Amino acid sequence: MPVAPRDAGRSGRVTLVGAGPGDPGLLTVAGREAIETADVVVADRLAPWEALAWAPPHAEVVDVSKIPFGRSTSQDEINRILVERARAGHHVVRLKGGDSYVFGRGFEEVQACAAAGVPTTVIPGVTSSVAAPELAGVPVTHRGLVQGFTVVSGHVPPGHPDSTVDYAALARSGTTLVVLMGVRTLPAIAEALVEGGLDGATPCALVADASLPSQRSLRTTLAKAASESAAAGIGAPAVAVIGHVAALEP
Questions:
Q1: Among 23, 39, 99, 181, the one annotated catalytic
Q2: Strands (E), the chain
Q3: 66 an active-site residue?
Q4: Residue 155, in any domain of the structure
Q5: Catalytic residue among 23, 44, 99, 209, which?
Q6: Out of 1, 66, 166, 224, which one is annotated catalytic?
Q7: Mean pLDDT, all residues of the chain
Q8: Mean per-residue pLDDT, 52-80
Q9: pLDDT tops 60 at residue 1
Q10: Phi-psi bin for 136: left (phi > 0), alpha (psi -120 to 50), beta?
Q11: Share of residues in the chain with pLDDT > 90 (%)
Q12: CA–CA distance, 170 with 152 (Å, rounded to integer)
């Protein structure tokens, strides 16, 4: 779509919108209002593209999808697009899956805009770290059972030079463990947790495509999670929930 002509009397700005786990109905009212006033929408693959129907007819849509092992737009290029369009006087909405500040690189984009003198607003989104388990019937906390939950990225496996996660400490934490982006690395994560002292019989739930018609979930144990999820065809995006809450039933 052609972008709207610049309004010489208007300053450009960027609004980061967390779009939730996938169902456009879970996008906040404030997020929808931002899209409805956008001149440019910069969206990634995990954002609900149905929500783009709320944008004005003149709005430009920029696809900056990051597909694992496929087409990818660098973060530097995304930052450049945001700053360039905002400096041209446009209201730029950066539409991201989940919440922009939960493994979404949202703060990097805010920093890039701040360095360029571009004003930004951040609208929180429903994070899949809580929503995916909830939609599958799993609470991340439960009175008398667990008093906290820990959210980690499984993007890199235990032992990887880029990993900063202490899996032995997680195994001893006594909290529900929620792993995002961990489908590929689940075997190594499960092994590290068991080596750290977590019982392999600890309940585990996996939830794929949370909130979408294609949502699937699997209840298993930590020791069997990798093999049974692979056999069931559970693929990304998926959330793993490790802890006694994963065995609870309504």
A1: 181
A2: 13-18, 40-43, 60-63, 91-96, 120-123, 149-153, 176-180, 203-208, 216-221, 238-242
A3: yes
A4: yes
A5: 44
A6: 66
A7: 93
A8: 87
A9: no
A10: alpha
A11: 90
A12: 10
Q: What is the mean pLDDT of residues 2-20?
A: 73
Say if residue 148 is in the same domain as residue 241: yes
Name the residue among 179, 230, 218, 176 with its Cα closest to residue 198: 176
* pLDDT in the model for residue 67: 60
Q: Are residues 157 and 177 in the same domain?
A: yes
Please tell me whether residues 212 and 178 are part of one structural domain: yes
pLDDT digits (tens, 9 = 90+) for 80-128: 999 999 999 999 999 999 999 999 999 999 999 999 999 999 999 999 9
Specify the pLDDT at position 130. 97
Is 181 assigned a catalytic role? yes
Domain containing 17 equals 13-123
The yes-or-no answer on residue 1 being catalytic is: no
Residue 192 is part of a domain; what is its CATH number?
3.30.950.10
Q: Are 72 and 173 within one domain? A: no
